[in-house]
Design goal:
single chain; about 120 residues; alpha+beta; GTP Cyclohydrolase I, domain 2; 4 strands; about 30% helix; about 30% strand; binds ligand LV4SOB2L
Length: about 120
C-alpha cells in the first residue's frame, strides 16, 4: 500500500460550467484540490523529478481539460480529471475535490469529492 501523496491545493480555473442556459454564456470559477497517491521514495533518494509526479505538469493538464470541456455538471469534470491523471501519471489512486465558487448563495462552497484507483499500479 502506498502512503505517499503529491498534492495540488486550491487550483482555480475560470471556465463555462453549469446546467442552466444563463450559465452557458458566462465564466465561473472552479477550484480543485487533488491528491495523488504515488511512491516518492525513489525520487527522494536520487533527488530526481522524473521519478515522481510533476505537480506543475498535472496542474497545467487540469487547467486545459477544465477549459476545453464545457460540461454541465461538476461531476463530469471531476471524473474526467481523475481519469486523465490515472491514465497519464504513475499514481495508484487519485482524490479530486472540486468546488464551484459562488454557485449557491449563503454557502462557503459546494462541490464533489471523488476517489478513483488505478488497477495497474
Ligand atoms: N450535484 C450537482 N448539483 C448541481 C450542479 C452540479 O454540477 N452538480 N450544478 C448546478 C447548477 O449548474 C448550479 O451551479 C447553478 O446554480 C445545480 N446543482
Amino acid at each position: 500500500m502506498v502512503h505517499d501523496i503529491v498534492f495540488i491545493e486550491a487550483l482555480k480555473v475560470d471556465t463555462v460550467i453549469g446546467v442552466y442556459d444563463w450559465e452557458k454564456t458566462i465564466q465561473q470559477t472552479l477550484q480543485f484540490d487533488i491528491e495523488m497517491r504515488t511512491d516518492i521514495k525513489a525520487a527522494a533518494q536520487i533527488d530526481d523529478l522524473s521519478k515522481t509526479v510533476d505537480y506543475s505538469e498535472v496542474a497545467a493538464d487540469v487547467v486545459e481539460l477544465a477549459k476545453q470541456n464545457q460540461a454541465e455538471l461538476i461531476e463530469t469534470v471531476a471524473e474526467k480529471v481523475a481519469q486523465l491523471i490515472l491514465a497519464d501519471y504513475h499514481v495508484s489512486s487519485v482524490k479530486v475535490s472540486l468546488r464551484k465558487l459562488g454557485a449557491v448563495a449563503n454557502t462557503a462552497s459546494v462541490g464533489v469529492i471523488i476517489e478513483r484507483a488505478n488497477t495497474l499500479n
